[in-house]
């Protein structure tokens, strides 16, 4: 029995890992396609049908490039930087409920790697560690411009983490639990959190843009102008790791947005589907629904990227500290008042 | 030897090693990174106690926020050996005396302690749940909790004041 | 009308440095507006031309690779007078003249012809001045309808008569068309 669980979990974790990598790979393809479509172009269409082999071609190119090591006294940290970024980006998926449950051969398989009851905090812990990848990499490059943009990226991530946490507090006040599984179960049918926490959702969304270092908050990298910012000195697959980590974390934050605010794997009529079509079919649809939501968010990330120019640094800081944090605090206050009023404890 | 014990020994070794390296490394950034590793292994110790909440909060607050700000300052200050301030002899003497006194106090405490052998109380309450934790914090430990918040507020005001004064001086 | 109020394009906008309100400083409304503009472009016609498979239509007077013409009997028009080389602003054309032998009458129209005629395609700017200067109607840029292809070596861009002279079949076809 014990071994069966270990086997089941290993298969599951392996699948999640593969899916995350695949999603990150095809995000690069999707990014180029979406960019092209929004600019009235077609986008990559030479490597394979619809350019679907483009990520493989890019990967081949990165692998076959020379791995340049700058003259830095911190060779180990230089290599550790992208490694930390990559592993952190992949770690978060451990606590995400990808579906409710499946029944395979009489066994109930919970579609979550591990259900720890502090799931949300775990996500935050991992996110806050992600800054190290950028900082250490930027510093070990032994290049003052890399260092400066690493500083910018780090201070941006720290600032927006505060607003992100505050916007989540209002949500947690309603759910009363930190487990992502419980939060998704609470959003059954149509009770999606975005309907109860619209302001919190917007703040969380903006912050997740900042956390993933994407436009309009990508001024740490400025792909074209600053030659990549903190990964200026990186080449070959080490740089590929940084870029890959960015896409992986975009996938993960889309997933978290979908799980926390858009009802995770729930869809209206799920209870009915369980009753009439069976648990497996209903949950299969649930997984598909979750992935549709994730794809929609990824598309949104890209849509925003090819719409908005990036903020100036002072605008970014003002938006974070003077715009989003007061709004988040106001949101906490309003939520508290409404909860008390709802429970009849206000007067 | 049980698995937990093995993990404990590994974690302790990592904690001690990184803590010593923090002190002995010449490069300030390396020592800051060793401190981060030390904090992570301490979080591991919390996990061994099954205190998941504490472990994750420890990672978020210490490794995720404080140490990053620390690294930040150290990286920007560009501390080198050349511009290290020479400390006067009296300061060194004072530091040495304080260190010895602290050691004595700690030793005295360790000699006085007796290991408590006995079963843990089973309260039947899950202290991992934030609901229980919140209740305990805001009912039983209300006063210390509020004191901590006042302390943090004072610290924040202090930081704001420090940064403000510099501005007026420059004008 | 004073300069301050004038607007030639009709789309003039006054720049203002007014302080933004709290709501404006969140940029939310502006961002949503921008998003609607870009999503509109998702459904517009794509302007890409998939080049090697699909070539955009060119104007009738489009200037491409040069062609040294033949007349209706398939004889080369060029008499190696050198006016094209003289008029060329990029100095891309060189030639060597030779006298026509009696048994070459079916090959060259004039008594003198160009035994070597070379155009350096790296220098050529496709201005068409050689075409204007030619007194014998011998060189044209609009006839071949061919782009000068890319290559790896500089030497490959010096086009000799083998690449420039109009193919015989084309001259025959032209002659046939003229008769009809």
From TrEMBL, chain A:
Give the superkingdom in one word. Answer: Bacteria
**Its job:** NDH-1 shuttles electrons from NADH, via FMN and iron-sulfur (Fe-S) centers, to quinones in the respiratory chain. The immediate electron acceptor for the enzyme in this species is believed to be ubiquinone. Couples the redox reaction to proton translocation (for every two electrons transferred, four hydrogen ions are translocated across the cytoplasmic membrane), and thus conserves the redox energy in a proton gradient. This subunit may bind ubiquinone.
State if Magnesium is listed as a keyword: no
Q: What is this protein called?
A: NADH-quinone oxidoreductase subunit H
**Similarity annotation:** Belongs to the complex I subunit 1 family.
What Enzyme Commission number does this protein have?
Answer: 7.1.1.-
Q: Which GO terms describe its biological process?
A: aerobic respiration
Keywords for this entry? Answer: Cell membrane, Membrane, NAD, Oxidoreductase, Quinone, Translocase, Transmembrane, Transmembrane helix, Ubiquinone
Its primary localisation, in coarse terms, equals membrane
Q: Where in the cell is it found?
A: Cell membrane; Membrane
Which stretches are transmembrane? 12-29, 76-98, 119-141, 153-174, 241-264, 284-304, 324-342
A GO cellular component annotated for this chain's UniProt record is:
plasma membrane
MF terms per GO, please?
NADH dehydrogenase activity; oxidoreductase activity, acting on NAD(P)H, quinone or similar compound as acceptor; quinone binding
Q: Which PANTHER family match?
A: NADH DEHYDROGENASE SUBUNIT 1 (PTHR11432), NADH-UBIQUINONE OXIDOREDUCTASE CHAIN 1 (PTHR11432:SF3)
Q: Does this UniProt record's set of keywords contain Transmembrane?
A: yes
Q: Which Pfam families match?
A: NADHdh
What general EC class does the enzyme of this chain belong to? translocase
As its record notes, the protein acts as a catalyst of:
a quinone + NADH + 5 H(+)(in) = a quinol + NAD(+) + 4 H(+)(out)
Q: How does it assemble?
A: NDH-1 is composed of 14 different subunits. Subunits NuoA, H, J, K, L, M, N constitute the membrane sector of the complex.
Q: How does it sit in the membrane?
A: Multi-pass membrane protein
UniProtKB/TrEMBL annotation, chain B:
Q: Which reaction does it catalyse?
A: a quinone + NADH + 5 H(+)(in) = a quinol + NAD(+) + 4 H(+)(out)
Keywords (alphabetical) are: Cell membrane, Membrane, NAD, Quinone, Transmembrane, Transmembrane helix
Matching entries from InterPro entries are given as: NADH_UbQ/plastoQ_OxRdtase_su6 (IPR001457), Nuo/plastoQ_OxRdtase_6_NuoJ (IPR042106)
The keyword Transferase appears for this protein:
no
GO molecular function terms here?
NADH dehydrogenase (ubiquinone) activity; quinone binding
Q: What is its EC number?
A: 7.1.1.-
Q: How does it sit in the membrane?
A: Multi-pass membrane protein
What Gene Ontology terms describe where this protein resides (cellular component)?
plasma membrane
Q: What class of enzyme is it?
A: translocase
Major place of localization?
A: membrane
The entry's localization annotation reads: Cell membrane
Transmembrane stretches, by residue range? 6-25, 32-49, 55-79, 91-111, 141-162
Question: Is Membrane tagged as a keyword?
Answer: yes
Q: What's this protein's family per the entry?
A: Belongs to the complex I subunit 6 family.
Q: Which PANTHER family match?
A: NADH-UBIQUINONE OXIDOREDUCTASE CHAIN 6
Which function does this protein serve?
NDH-1 shuttles electrons from NADH, via FMN and iron-sulfur (Fe-S) centers, to quinones in the respiratory chain. Couples the redox reaction to proton translocation (for every two electrons transferred, four hydrogen ions are translocated across the cytoplasmic membrane), and thus conserves the redox energy in a proton gradient.
Name of the protein in its database record = NADH-quinone oxidoreductase subunit J
Provenance organism? Flavobacterium silvaticum
TrEMBL record, chain C:
Residue ranges annotated for the 4Fe-4S ferredoxin-type domain, each copy included: 69-98, 115-144
Keyword annotations for this protein, in alphabetical order, are: 4Fe-4S, Cell membrane, Iron, Iron-sulfur, Membrane, Metal-binding, NAD, Quinone, Repeat, Translocase, Transmembrane, Transmembrane helix, Ubiquinone
GO BP annotation list: aerobic respiration
The record, for InterPro entries, names: 4Fe4S_Fe-S-bd, 4Fe4S_Fe_S_CS, NADH_quinone_OxRdtase_chainI
Residues noted as binding [4Fe-4S] cluster 1 in the record, renumbered to the chain: 78, 81, 84, 134
Q: Name the catalysed reactions.
A: a quinone + NADH + 5 H(+)(in) = a quinol + NAD(+) + 4 H(+)(out)
Q: How is the cofactor bound?
A: Binds 2 [4Fe-4S] clusters per subunit.
Query: Which top-rank group of organisms is this from?
Result: Bacteria
Cofactor names: [4Fe-4S] cluster
Q: How does it assemble?
A: NDH-1 is composed of 14 different subunits. Subunits NuoA, H, J, K, L, M, N constitute the membrane sector of the complex.
Function summary: NDH-1 shuttles electrons from NADH, via FMN and iron-sulfur (Fe-S) centers, to quinones in the respiratory chain. The immediate electron acceptor for the enzyme in this species is believed to be ubiquinone. Couples the redox reaction to proton translocation (for every two electrons transferred, four hydrogen ions are translocated across the cytoplasmic membrane), and thus conserves the redox energy in a proton gradient.
Which HAMAP family does this entry report, sorted A to Z?
NDH1_NuoI
What's the family? Belongs to the complex I 23 kDa subunit family.
| Protein's name according to its UniProt entry | NADH-quinone oxidoreductase subunit I
Q: What species is given as this protein's source? A: Flavobacterium silvaticum
């Amino acid at each position: 029995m014990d071994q069966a669980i270990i086997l089941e979990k290993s298969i599951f974790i392996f699948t999640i890992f593969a899916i995350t990598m695949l999603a990150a790979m095809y995000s690069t393809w999707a990014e180029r396609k979406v960019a092209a479509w929004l600019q009235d172009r077609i986008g990559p269409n030479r490597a394979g049908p619809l350019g679907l082999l483009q990520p493989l071609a890019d990967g081949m190119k990165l692998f076959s490039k020379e791995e340049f090591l700058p003259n830095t006294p911190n060779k180990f940290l230089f290599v550790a930087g992208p490694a930390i970024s990559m592993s952190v980006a992949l770690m978060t998926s451990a606590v995400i409920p990808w579906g409710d449950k499946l029944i395979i051969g009489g066994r109930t398989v919970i579609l979550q790697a591990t259900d720890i009851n502090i799931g949300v905090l775990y996500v935050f812990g991992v996110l806050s560690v992600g800054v190290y990848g950028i900082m250490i990499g930027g510093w070990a490059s032994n290049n003052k411009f890399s260092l400066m943009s690493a500083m910018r990226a780090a201070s941006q991530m720290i600032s927006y983490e505060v607003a992100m946490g505050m916007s989540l507090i209002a949500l947690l006040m309603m759910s009363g639990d930190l487990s992502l599984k419980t939060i998704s179960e609470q959003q059954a049918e149509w009770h999606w959190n975005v309907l109860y926490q619209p302001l919190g959702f917007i703040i969380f969304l903006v912050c997740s843009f900042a956390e993933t270092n994407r436009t309009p908050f990508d001024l740490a990298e400025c792909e074209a102008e600053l030659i990549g910012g903190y990964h200026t000195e990186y080449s070959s697959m080490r740089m590929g790791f940084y870029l890959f980590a960015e896409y992986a974390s975009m996938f993960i934050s889309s997933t978290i947005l979908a799980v926390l605010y858009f009802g995770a794997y729930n869809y209206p009529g799920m209870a009915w589907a369980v009753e009439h079509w069976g648990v497996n079919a209903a949950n299969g649809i649930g997984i598909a629904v979750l992935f549709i939501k994730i794809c929609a968010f990824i598309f949104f990330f890209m849509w925003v990227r090819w719409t908005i120019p990036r903020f100036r640094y002072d605008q970014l800081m003002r938006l974070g500290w003077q715009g989003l944090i007061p709004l988040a605090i106001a949101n906490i206050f309003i939520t508290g008042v409404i909860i008390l009023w709802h429970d009849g404890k206000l007067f | 030897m049980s698995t937990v014990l093995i993990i404990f020994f590994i974690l302790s070794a990592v904690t001690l090693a990184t803590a010593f390296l923090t002190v002995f490394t010449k490069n300030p950034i390396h020592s800051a990174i060793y401190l981060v590793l030390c904090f992570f292994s301490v979080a591991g110790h919390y996990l061994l106690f099954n205190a998941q909440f504490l472990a994750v909060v420890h990672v978020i607050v210490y490794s995720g926020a404080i140490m990053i700000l620390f690294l930040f300052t150290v990286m920007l200050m560009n501390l080198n050996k050349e511009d290290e301030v020479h400390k006067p002899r009296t300061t060194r003497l004072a530091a040495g005396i304080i260190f010895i006194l602290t050691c004595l106090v700690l030793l005295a405490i360790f000699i006085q302690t007796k290991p408590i052998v006995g079963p843990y109380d089973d309260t039947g309450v899950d202290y991992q749940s934030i609901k229980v934790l919140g209740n305990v914090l805001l009912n039983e430990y209300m006063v210390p909790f509020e004191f901590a918040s006042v302390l943090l507020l004072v610290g924040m005001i202090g930081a704001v004041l420090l940064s403000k004064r510099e501005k007026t001086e420059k004008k | 009308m004073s300069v301050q109020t004038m607007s030639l394009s009709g789309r003039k906008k006054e720049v203002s440095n007014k302080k933004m309100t709290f709501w404006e400083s969140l940029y939310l409304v502006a961002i949503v507006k921008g998003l609607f503009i870009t999503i509109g472009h998702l459904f517009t016609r794509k302007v890409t031309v998939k080049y090697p498979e699909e070539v955009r239509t060119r104007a009738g007077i489009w200037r491409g690779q040069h062609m040294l013409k033949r007349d209706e009997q398939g004889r080369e028009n060029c008499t190696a007078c050198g006016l094209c080389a003289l008029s060329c602003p990029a100095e891309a054309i060189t030639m060597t003249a030779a006298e026509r032998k009696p048994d070459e009458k079916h090959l060259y129209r004039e008594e003198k012809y160009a035994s070597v005629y070379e155009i350096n395609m790296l220098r050529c700017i496709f201005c068409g001045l050689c075409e204007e200067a030619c007194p014998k109607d011998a060189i044209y840029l609009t006839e071949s309808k061919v782009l000068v292809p890319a290559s790896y070596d500089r030497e490959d861009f010096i086009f000799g008569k083998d690449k420039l002279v109009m193919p015989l079949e084309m001259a025959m076809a032209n002659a046939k068309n003229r008769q009809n």
